[in-house]
Design a protein that fits this description.
- The structure is a homodimer.
- The first copy, chain A, is of the alpha/beta class.
- Chain A folds into two domains: 213 residues, 3-Layer(aba) Sandwich (Rossmann fold), CATH 3.40.50; 91 residues, Rossmann fold (3-Layer(aba) Sandwich).
- The N and C termini of chain A lie far apart (54 Å).
- In chain A, the strands form two sheets. Chain A has a six-stranded mixed sheet with strand order 1-2-10-7-8-9, sandwiched between helices. A four-stranded parallel sheet of chain A has the order 5-4-3-6, with helices on both faces.
- In chain A, helix 1 packs across helix 8.
- Chains A and B meet through helix 12 and helix 14 of A and helix 12 and helix 14 of B.
């Protein structure tokens, strides 16, 4: 049986989006390695355009649309980074973007969407409310929905982050990515499959929103409970990513908000880079399982850096 | 008349310390450029070993000591980053280090000194108390003092940061460095003198500790008042750096703590990197003078990233 996504799908997507995305650096830290007991390679998507890996998938999906559809604009619902990524892709391609965001989305992410000329439609922070609002927007505008994760072009775009990591660092034993809707994780799994086939793919998830953990156990998609400071990971898995994750991801490690906050602080203090709570989730997972990774080469996709400084400051000083 | 510091002094120092320091990246940001109205090139010494440019000068001075002196160890007084830099240099050279620190120094910096095996002697946060305590330590141990800024080997070492910037980015119109004791600023001025002679050198200083501003006006060293969140810049100018600054620095721009905090936030949010308040001072200066720099190529030495996250969080959430 042919796979859903081919090697050349990812290679072609990478070439397609290259003019519009950064090849982000891979950082290392002796002091974090000492704490973790293994060699960590941090793929810094916090330095990506719009501050997150989401620029990859959104740009790939937009560039793949036929001209007549594209002309009517792009639409999506997103809690944050994908929203900015779609607004940016629309701006690059000179079309309109219509973004449905939960009213609880961080202000910094709303500002980002507006800065790219995106039109925001606020809704209640539930999947049902998002989908309903989006359907209304689409029926009015004729825009094409680019789903944040349940879309193969998006998944293929996200795969290019891990592809770059594997090109730069050879013989990585395992790679960790955070999981929310599953776009980054499933893309990372496909990238490992083709570009570093001996690498074990591990998911990291907030314990307060452990739907991927439970879904892999039960074999069917379980709804997210949405309780975590990792605001980018509160969505339920999509069926397209889930099918990939079921066959290609070895394990889901869950971590508490305290562990996420401690990992975020550690990265800020030692690597001197700003990452958002969602990006700290795989770091927390590595620190949690510690000994199991002893002396391994471990890749971590640092998914983004769009943190709400006020909110984080309150957490840190409380 | 021969200059105090020659071109080959700096070139030889650079070769000497290269095995022990990072060649730090130069970052840019479209969105900060838009705000500032000029092209900014951020030399990221927050990514340097010990999290600050201080690793350069301390390592150069230590490597230049005769073996018999070196064997008795290194000593210094410092409010923070230089302390860690000396402790690290001593560890690399396998000798002891004795560090006099004001009791008000940030905990993160004390932890850093201890992590490198440095022995800390706490004192009151005044120059007199620091010098007295250091004299006692030296008379007991026979260690050699490496002053944080009033030392030519240290100044020459600090010059290598701007040298790297000028090697990477050509035709910089002006370069800004923060000024506390004057080591980084005087080194930057010498680096411009030899490696980018058309570049204007500008100092940036907290308004609450504007001794360099007043000293350049009066022509003699004025004492610092030491009131600013930029805790690395509260010392009075040394006479060695001052002589250089008088002849080679065009201007001192002073900025308020509010401006420093806003600049720090801006860098965290847009560049996604962690810088300490002292490093934000030249960024604040650029944003303050705005129009005067229109369309210029402006280099900024981001001096370090050792921020006390608790303290900063309280400032941000207050």
């Amino acid at each position: 049986m042919d796979p859903i996504i081919t090697r050349s799908d990812i290679e072609e997507a990478h070439e397609r989006i290259k003019p519009y995305i950064h090849r982000t650096p891979v950082l290392t830290s002796h002091s974090i390695d000492e704490l973790a007991g293994c060699s960590l390679f941090f793929k810094c998507e916090n330095f990506q355009n719009v501050g997150a890996f989401k620029a990859r998938g959104a740009t790939n999906a937009a560039l793949n649309l036929p001209a007549d559809l594209l002309a009517k604009g792009l639409a999506t619902h997103s809690s944050g980074n994908h929203a900015q990524a779609i607004a940016r892709a629309a701006k690059i391609l000179n079309v309109k973007s219509y973004i449905v965001m939960p009213r609880t989305a961080p202000e910094i992410k709303k500002r980002g969407v507006r800065a790219y000329g995106g039109e925001i439609f606020e809704c209640e922070p539930t999947l049902a409310a998002r989908e309903e609002t989006l359907a209304q927007v689409i029926s009015k505008t004729g825009a094409t929905e680019i789903h944040p994760f349940n879309n193969y072009d998006v998944i293929i775009g996200q795969a290019t982050a891990a592809k770059e990591l594997f090109e730069e660092i050879k013989n990585i034993n395992m790679v960790l990515a955070p999981v929310g809707g599953g776009g980054l994780l499933s893309g990372t799994a496909y990238a490992a499959n083709y570009f570093s086939p001996d690498t074990v793919v591990i998911a990291a998830e907030p314990a307060g929103s452990d739907d991927a953990y439970r879904s892999l156990k039960s074999g069917r998609i379980e709804p997210a409970q949405s309780q975590s400071i990792a605001d980018g990971l509160l969505t339920t898995l999509g069926d397209k990513p889930f099918a990939i994750i079921k066959s290609k991801v070895a394990e889901v490690i869950t971590v508490s908000d305290e562990e996420i906050l401690a990992a975020m602080r550690l990265v800020w203090e030692r690597l001197k880079i700003v990452i958002e709570p969602s990006a700290a989730v795989p770091v927390a997972a590595v620190l949690k399982v510690g000994d199991q990774l002893a002396n391994q080469k471990v890749g971590i996709i640092l998914s983004g850096g769009n943190v709400d400084l006020e909110k984080f400051s309150k957490l840190l000083s409380s």
